[in-house]
Amino acid sequence: MNVRHAGIGMTSQRTRSRMIERLRTQGIQDEVVLEAMTAVPRHIFVDEALASRAYDDVSLPIGHAQTISQPYIVARMIEMLRNGKQLNRVLEVGTGCGYQAAVLGQVAREVYSVERIQPLFKRATDSLKELKARNVILSYADGTMGRPEIAPFDGIIMAAAALHVPQALLEQLAIGGRMVLPLGAREQFLTLIERDEKGFHESRLEAVKFVPILTGKA
Ligand code: SAH
Fold this sequence. Notes:
By secondary structure, the chain is of the alpha/beta class. The protein has helices at residues 9-25, 31-39, 71-82, 99-107, 118-130, 167-171, and strands at residues 60-63, 66-68, 87-93, 108-115, 136-140, 153-158, 173-183, 188-196, 199-208. Bound molecules: S-adenosyl-L-homocysteine (SAH).
């Protein structure tokens, strides 16, 4: 255990199990997702001062005016993305602290996650290294461009809200693939996009509150 997080060591497994039970009561049913969230320590990804709240169902500040998403939203998005099937190659736009990327790393063969704020990218790189999450590959770039050289992806997750689905990301979604993202400005809805041979199908899920997607690097 890293000294930085030693203080929470004895209780983290128990508080993590409580978080999993809460996710079940909130309606998360995919055992693969619940197992993944049991496996990934969430307190590694937040500042030590906030570590005691890491397993509460809240979003927490991670600096640079950004937040770590609340556990329920992470679970819900990955459950929608998986749709009960094994994921091969996944793209995440908005690494932030890297927590969701680490959970994705447990359920997909390869995860590519892109972050536009350099200090967050660096910190997430360290945290994922600490967890030895070798199938999670981070990059520092504007994620709305996707990773065309690695596409297609059978799953794409956006961790920041957009007004429209970035065209580049639609193009990088595999046939049979799924994309989950928050859409909208002041009023946002979690949105599922499914691609088949005929085209794209969009369904609107619950109301959510995400930070906005921004363009360019910072
Ligand atoms: N996935 C995170 C949540 C991150 S919050 C978690 O596990 O909790 C959203 C992140 O999206 C922020 O870090 C923000 O900097 C990033 N972001 C916003 N616009 C972006 C863009 N165009 N490309 C890449 N990252 C972006």
